[in-house]
Amino acid sequence: MTGHRSSRRRALTLLVVGPLACGLFVAGGIAATWLALGRPAPARGAVWFEVAKVGTARNPGAPQQPFFALVLGTGARSDDPAQSPDDPGLADAIHVIGVNPALKTATLIDIPRDTEGPGGNKLNSYIVNNPGGNDLRAEADAVSSVVGVPITWVIRANFPNFQQMVDEIGGIDVNIPTAMDDDFSGAHFAAGPAHLNGEQALQFSRDRHSFPNGDLSRSSNQGLLIVSALQTLQQKHPSAGDTVRLIATLGRHTKLDGVGISDLFHMGSLALTFDPAKIKNVVLPVTDGSGSNLVKTAAANALLADFADDAVLQATP
């Protein structure tokens, strides 16, 4: 039973990254709502996600140059790893979002959790395997060394009650790319458009058994969920009043770490103008390495060079 529970906890965290990334795209709205409503305190409810700033550069106004954010889903049930010794919070969902302000678009690089990082460890382990314990900067540095871009923002799920979050925002519309039939995750979906509630979104994001390449397809589906969440929010909250109510809900469940209101306002205001149809979602090309590690391919190096240039992929592999 212990192995089953651990597997379920790890699987639970994989969905968190989808709603979690909505925090990046609606952060500007959170800031505006705080200002309009007299700066109500953030994170007054259960913490659904955390927005942290780990880079040193600060934008005095709206960002003008490309920047990069790291989105993580972890297994920790608390910010304090000592409170969850059986599941310290490995970063089992890893995505880098590149944002190009001039072109008003973004690119998602989905990184399989077993990808090898500096020193030969799996990338998902650096958030806990460092002297500081649960350290976002250590994880950001490790991912940055693999992807080759400077990471300024980290968005992390630190509470696994994401099903409630998905339900509270009204579910997510997803165009499921391939039929799913997996008893382990509970994912039994036909290919095509679907509206997923919290439980169904969990099943969709957990499934790796319906695909021959396992975790690579699962990583891609997590990225798809991120983009689909943004598109759903834009379509279902068109009015200013709808947006305020949505942002107020998200704001009550957001923890800030080194992030200012102006940072959130400028970043989020920009992201809300994006066309989800133009956001590319690409899994990092990997192959077998030593042991159970995965390593980047030559195609990955070319893709990452293109990504680092302006956060936009000129061609999808």
As residue ranges, the low-confidence spans are 1-43, 57-61
Based on CA atoms alone, the radius of gyration comes out at 18 Å
Oligomerization status of the protein chains: single chain
CATH superfamily: LCP protein
CATH class identity: Alpha Beta
Q: Main sheet: which strands, in order across?
A: 10-1-5-2-3-4-11
> Main sheet?
7 strands, mixed
Describe the structure.
This protein is α/β, with parallel strands linked by helices and 317 residues long. Helix content is 38%, strand content 21%. The chain has one domain: LCP protein (Aminopeptidase), CATH 3.40.630.190. Strand 12 (286-288) and strand 13 (294-296) form a beta hairpin. Helix 1 packs across helix 5 and helix 5 (198-206) packs antiparallel against helix 6 (215-236). The longest helix has 24 residues, at 2-25. It is globular. Residues 1-43 and 57-61 have low confidence and may be disordered.
Layout: helices, strands, pairs:
Blueprint: H1 2-25, H2 27-36, E1 49-53, E2 67-74, E3 91-100, E4 105-111, H3 136-147, E5 153-157, H4 162-168, E6 172-176, E7 180-182, E8 187-189, E9 192-196, H5 198-206, H6 215-236, H7 240-251, E10 254-257, H8 261-271, E11 280-283, E12 286-288, E13 294-296, H9 298-310
Parallel strand pairs: 1-10, 2-5, 4-11
Antiparallel strand pairs: 1-5, 2-3, 3-4, 6-9, 7-8, 12-13
Helix pairs in contact: 1-4, 1-5, 1-6, 2-7, 2-8, 4-5, 5-6
